[in-house]
Fold these 3 entries.
Entry 1:
Amino acid sequence: MKYDRTFVWKNSHAQHRLGYHLVFTPKYRKKVLRGKLNQRLCELFYEAAKANQWFIHELNIKYDHTHMMIQLPPDITVSKTVMYLKGGTSRAIRKEFPELREFLWGDSLWQDGYFIETVGRIDEKKMRQYIQEQWEQES
């Protein structure tokens, strides 16, 4: 499998471009993602992406939520990716920043849910039109 900064990845049998916009928030939407914690989260996200052969195209960590545009290979699910990202960063951050216990009770840094949407180069209307035109050309 070839992994690089280009958006289309290739392996021996396929070419794929699977990009996602991912958003998740700390517990209680607390505004704790700042300063050194913010910087450390960035490092952890990029380390996880490198270790798993994912690619983060964009990352923006606000005080109370995180936006990420990430590209994944087709053999990993989005839910598994989120589990790795949130679980790994939560363990590391809670260990490195014990002062968070004052604001975030329990074992996790993150809320349970997340938002995910696919990212493509063309919109749905254009894709529908393209597919319909292919049908018309074959008929």
Note: Residues 27 and 106 are 10 Å apart (CA to CA).
Entry 2:
Amino acid sequence: MSVCGLIIVLTVGLSVLTSPLQARIQLDIIAKFRNAGVELDVVTVVDSDVEASKSKVALLGIATPLRSSFSFRLEEWLSLIDLWSKAVKTQSNSWKVIGSMTETETSDVSHLTISAGPGVKFVISSSRKGIVTFVLSKDDTGGFEKALYQVKEFFSR
């Protein structure tokens, strides 16, 4: 299964995995954050059916109940950590875009934009799925940062 296929399967429904698929794919939810009925998930995925160098993927997913996700390899995850660090340092009473990323290796390319304000805002936009937004409260910044570094460690194993 290609990375594109894997992302499509995971995005369609993380909870709808079939038995044969479970044997090949290991999915771990690292953290869940909730705010105003919206959920942000940090997920790691290992697909044993692809070459080792491409078997690990991390996902940032937002459920509004519309569900959209953005996939990362290690290099992109490190860029996310950099954007996150800048956003945390830039928080204020008004929103300011810190930076954005474009997904690779997928047929439905998503864009992730991170903004700083009274929290950190994540916006995932996709031509197929539309736009989903999650605002991480200041109270959840420590937990999200811990999840970021857990995923970084996942990539190094």
Note: The beta strands are 25-35, 38-47, 56-63, 67-72, 96-102, 110-117, 119-126, 130-136.
Entry 3:
Amino acid sequence: MTHSLSGKPGTPGTVSRRRILEAVPATALAAGTIGIADVVRVDAEEIKRQGRSMILLWMAGGQSQFETFDPKPGTKNGGPTQAISTAVPGVQLAENWARTASVLDRFSLIRSMTNKEGNHQRASYQLHTGYVPSGSVKHPSLSASIAEQLSDPKFELPPVVSVGRTTGSGFLGVDYEPFTVRTPGQLPQNVAVPVPSQRYRRRLGLLGQLEGEFAGRGGQAVVANHQKLYKKSSRMVLSENVSAFDIADESDSLKQKYGDTSFGRGCLLARRLVESGVTFVEVVSRGWDTHLDIFDRIAALAEQVDPAVATLVEDLEDRGLLEKTLVVWMGEFGRTPRVNARGGRDHYPRVFSAAVAGGGVRGGQVIGGSTADGSAVADRPVSVPDLFCSVCHSLKVDPRKEHLSPLGRPMKVVDGGEVVQELFG
């Protein structure tokens, strides 16, 4: 990143003289020893102040590109799915995605995602962490790595929230472990304080004394993590910001646009959370492992996902949040070109699709493509590390930042890959 000391406000990636003078030690100013470390530190603070965030829309099970964003009507592998026009001239989506088609000018479609992992557990782990599973280390999710660089440690709500189960924070620890929401739209269970706040704090003090005794007998590490969890939880339940989890005060018309489904309410919750200051929100849609009856099943899934995705992007845009909120739609892999004997498609990581909007991404374009029969990437292959580097670029996160694993091995946020520059061109 190029660092400017021009003092021009409002320019991404620049640091003003005033901010340098405010943030660096007076001794450094007196000695004239302002270094690059000071600039980087101030720049990091500036990025946090910009309130950038990400929403991941995760299609658990692996969505079929043929029945979503890369239809092949009239071909041997295309099946009965027809294609429809979109807000982008010449670009078509599968027929069940009319609402998404109407806002496609806000999206960049990547039709040339490619990978090697065809196992659900391994591929899902890789598409969340950037690494294949290893028995020796539990890698942090990308959400944890993003939150570690962007989130405000003083903010009362968790920096990472997931509507549905997801990959954890790995060796980055409990500070960035995702807070799981099981019933989107309602206050999480057990957040109501059962006693007056003053009495609640006295109880926490008593718990701290008991844990201090246990720590003195050799349980320091366990107690430290437990106290972190309790401290974070207490800050949340005592905060007014916890009301962001409750969508009751949203208009009925907006809730209907998102859809009265778990995924629809999850997307509305995601908008409320990033608006309140949460750094990363994942919303999970399940049921995409369509080995049989794929055409009916995806039509039913699209009824839930299509309106929620389109409304989320429109809602973020209407509130001035889309430019600083990156929205990514993807799953762990695609589906086979050939329809199997049970009317479904099997696992296929060789070529699949993803969609990206907001966060400085240029909408209304398609990046890469698959062959006419959908069996391979035809041009501009995009790997998982490429996508992750692009996510980091959008959020102004350092993809090469290293953390030490529990084994003492330095590990980058993203190992390899390059930014897909077309996304931002």
Note: Residues 194-237 form one domain.
